Amino acid sequence: MIEAIKGELGATIQVLQAMQADNDLCQRVTDVVELSVAALQAGNKILFAGNGGSAADAQHWAGELVSRFNYDRPGLAAIALTTDTSILTAIGNDYGYDYSFARQIEALGREGDVFFALSTSGRSKNILRALTACKERGVKTVGFTGATGGDMLALCDQCLRIPSTHTPRIQEGHEALGHMICGLIEQRIFPKTGAPA
Ligand SMILES: O=C(CO)[C@@H](O)[C@H](O)[C@H](O)[C@H](O)COP(=O)(O)O
Ligand SMILES: [Zn+2]
Hints:
The termini are far apart. The chain has a single domain (1-189), classed as Glucose-6-phosphate isomerase like protein, domain 1 (Rossmann fold, 3-Layer(aba) Sandwich), CATH 3.40.50.10490. It is built from seven helices and five strands. It has helices at 2-21, 23-41, 53-66, 85-94, 102-108, 125-137, 167-189, and strands at 46-50, 78-80, 114-118, 140-145, 158-161. The protein has a five-stranded parallel β-sheet with strand order 2-1-3-4-5, sandwiched between helices. Zinc ion is lined by residues 53, 168, 171. Keywords: Carbohydrate metabolism, Cytoplasm, Isomerase, Metal-binding, Zinc. Its EC number is 5.3.1.28. Residues 36-195 form the SIS domain.
């Protein structure tokens, strides 16, 4: 068991090291932070969605922005589309699960908003439909996905691909990026000397 645990930790470290060495990924993260800061400073909001573990990430990241991350400052406009069971069950029941996020984008998405779409496979239909709904409404899109990007790649303005094809490893990469992006947004909008960058 100890060896298995060490092997798992090694696999996680390997993915994070590959991310650190990936200049293109790091540049894209910078671009996503700039895109998000510009949207928030213009009075727009960030929307988040994902399935399963990625739904938890979506809620987690929205919470970091609305509440606080590293330090106290005014709340930032962010909504996870994964949390309202009445909305999710109504859409699922009346239109089908594939529309669970697209319908919410239609209702809540405004031109200038940013949608963070999480899908490790890049193939979840409710995420793909939501990305198409964003294109129709002028909502900017950021994909968080795995090495291939799946069908998301062609639908996102920016795509952050974790160099792995294994769902849990990809999710761990997303989690590292999510914290990083929330921290950088906070620091750029409400600069604080001595705060972690
Ligand atoms: O957390 C995990 C696996 O680690 C699962 O719940 C996983 O998120 C679910 O199977 C999702 O439905 C996978 O969807 P996606 O990432 O391919 O869009
Ligand atoms: Zn999981």
